[in-house]
């Protein structure tokens, strides 16, 4: 464990404990990693006597952040996003609030001393290999108070749910937390021919962590506009319930119907291709599901006959001008989510093909778009509605070396 990361956490925690206002605004992502991160931080701050006001965001959109930082003298925490945009947050904050960032995506250092960017990418770790946001939050929670070691199982579930493995196994800090959960009696690791399976030993019996991750992903993404993230946090902290199971069944049925229609459309000629990229635009057809679902669709079907395994996959979805619980925000943006086939994953890991984080953020920046959460194998950014084809063209220019 990089000692400098823990020292930075200790410094931030000292500031938090000295902060006079015992309220915290917590902004977290809506996938399994973001929900487990939100659950860990909710429990950590509540145990420390803070009142937690929680907001689930699909991305930390600039228009929303501008509203957040109209405030002063608040404690604001971001998790599972915002690592890359710490300089932008610093410019907005101007030392008026105490801000913590607990992310694991590509990161930039903060420029405001009141903004503590605790993204492990700044401390020599890789967010798409070594450590998830949930494990980052767990390290923060354990550093805050050693009594929070009982949150290890939530972090391990988030690590498995985020899906970054090395030779089929969790690696480095992610694996350390999984082994800690085994020692606590809440986890079982089962080796198999292609890696390992991770089983959560819940009060109701063994549950494969991949299934639990999918459960949380569906609540948070398909149910984003239907209070699914709140239910996901409850599942993390209290376990499954008949109510959560009913919500899951309803959302899965909705997701299946919408996805099946889109598959038919793509097979009927709805997929466009360029030299290196294959792409499609669902516009508003995935409504009322959240825009995380464009990435989920690409992830589910990336290794099927729909897509060419040798090309990058890109899907677009229009973002509604609303953040649940936060209120209306004029966004007028479209999200692009990118994935690669298993074949291309191996090429990227071997450095024989460029990672998504090497060209999507650059192309997005050329069009004045917004980049935050990009890994080498999964990536997403936003641009103004109507800029979709131009973004594809800019990526092609970068990939082919055309200025």
Report on this model:
With 403 residues, this protein is of the alpha/beta class. The chain has 2 domains: 3-208, inorganic pyrophosphatase (n-terminal core); 271-400, Diaminopimelate Epimerase, Chain A, domain 1. It is 43% helix and 20% strand. It has 14 helices and 16 strands. It has helices at residues 3-18, 32-47, 62-68, 86-93, 133-144, 152-162, 172-183, 209-222, 228-238, 242-270, 292-301, 342-349, 360-366, 388-400; strands at residues 23-28, 51-56, 75-79, 98-102, 115-117, 187-192, 195-202, 205-208, 272-273, 277-281, 312-318, 322-323, 327-328, 333-339, 370-374, 379-384. The strands form 4 sheets. Strands 9-10-11-14-16-15 form a 6-stranded mixed sheet, with helices on both faces. It has a 5-stranded parallel sheet with strand order 2-1-3-4-5, sandwiched between helices. Strands 6-7-8 form a 3-stranded antiparallel sheet. Helix 8 (209-222) packs antiparallel against helix 9 (228-238). It starts with a helix and ends with a helix. The mean pLDDT is 95.
Largest sheet: 6 strands, mixed
How many DSSP-defined strands? 16
Low-confidence stretches: none
The whole-number mean of residue pLDDT values reads 95
Count up the domains.
2
| Radius of gyration of CA atoms, rounded to a whole number | 20 Å
How are the elements arranged and paired?
Elements: H1 3-18, E1 23-28, H2 32-47, E2 51-56, H3 62-68, E3 75-79, H4 86-93, E4 98-102, E5 115-117, H5 133-144, H6 152-162, H7 172-183, E6 187-192, E7 195-202, E8 205-208, H8 209-222, H9 228-238, H10 242-270, E9 272-273, E10 277-281, H11 292-301, E11 312-318, E12 322-323, E13 327-328, E14 333-339, H12 342-349, H13 360-366, E15 370-374, E16 379-384, H14 388-400
Parallel strand pairs: 1-2, 1-3, 3-4, 4-5, 10-11
Antiparallel strand pairs: 6-7, 7-8, 9-10, 11-14, 12-13, 14-16, 15-16
């Amino acid at each position: 464990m990089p000692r400098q990361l823990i020292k930075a956490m200790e410094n931030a925690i000292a500031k938090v404990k000295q902060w006079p206002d015992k309220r915290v605004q917590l902004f977290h992502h809506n996938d399994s990693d973001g929900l487990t991160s939100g659950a860990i931080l909710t429990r950590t701050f509540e145990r420390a006597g803070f009142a937690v006001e929680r907001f689930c965001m699909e991305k930390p959109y600039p228009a929303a952040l501008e509203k957040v930082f109209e405030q002063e003298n608040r404690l604001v925490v971001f998790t599972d996003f915002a690592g890359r945009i710490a300089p932008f947050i610093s410019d907005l904050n101007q030392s008026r609030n105490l801000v913590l960032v607990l992310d694991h995506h590509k990161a930039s250092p903060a420029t405001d001393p009141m903004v503590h960017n605790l993204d492990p990418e700044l401390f020599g770790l890789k967010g798409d290999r070594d450590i998830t946001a949930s494990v980052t939050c767990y390290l923060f929670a354990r550093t805050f108070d050693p009594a929070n070691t009982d949150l290890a199982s939530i972090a391990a579930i988030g690590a498995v749910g985020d899906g970054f493995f090395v030779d089929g196994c969790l690696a480095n800090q992610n694996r350390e937390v999984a082994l800690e959960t085994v020692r606590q009696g809440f986890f079982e690791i089962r080796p198999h021919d292609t890696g390992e399976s991770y089983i959560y030993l819940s009060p109701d019996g063994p549950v494969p962590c991949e299934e639990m991750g999918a459960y949380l992903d569906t609540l948070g993404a398909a149910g984003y506009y239907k209070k699914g993230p709140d239910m996901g946090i409850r599942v993390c902290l209290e376990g499954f319930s008949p109510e959560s199971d009913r919500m899951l069944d309803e959302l899965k049925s909705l997701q299946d119907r919408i996805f099946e229609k889109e598959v038919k459309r793509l097979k009927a000629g709805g997929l466009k291709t360029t030299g290196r990229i294959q792409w499609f635009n669902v516009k508003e057809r995935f409504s009322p599901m959240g825009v995380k679902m464009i990435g989920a669709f690409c992830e589910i079907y990336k290794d099927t006959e729909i897509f060419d395994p040798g090309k990058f996959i890109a899907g677009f979805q229009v973002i509604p001008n609303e953040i649940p619980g936060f209120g209306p925000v004029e966004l007028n943006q479209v999200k692009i989510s990118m994935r690669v086939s298993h074949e291309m994953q191996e090429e990227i890991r071997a450095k024989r093909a460029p990672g998504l984080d090497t060209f999507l953020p650059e192309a997005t920046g050329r069009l004045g778009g917004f980049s935050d959460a990009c890994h080498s194998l999964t990536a997403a950014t936003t641009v103004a509605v109507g800029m979709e084809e131009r973004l594809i063209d800019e990526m092609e220019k970068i990939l082919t070396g055309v200025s």
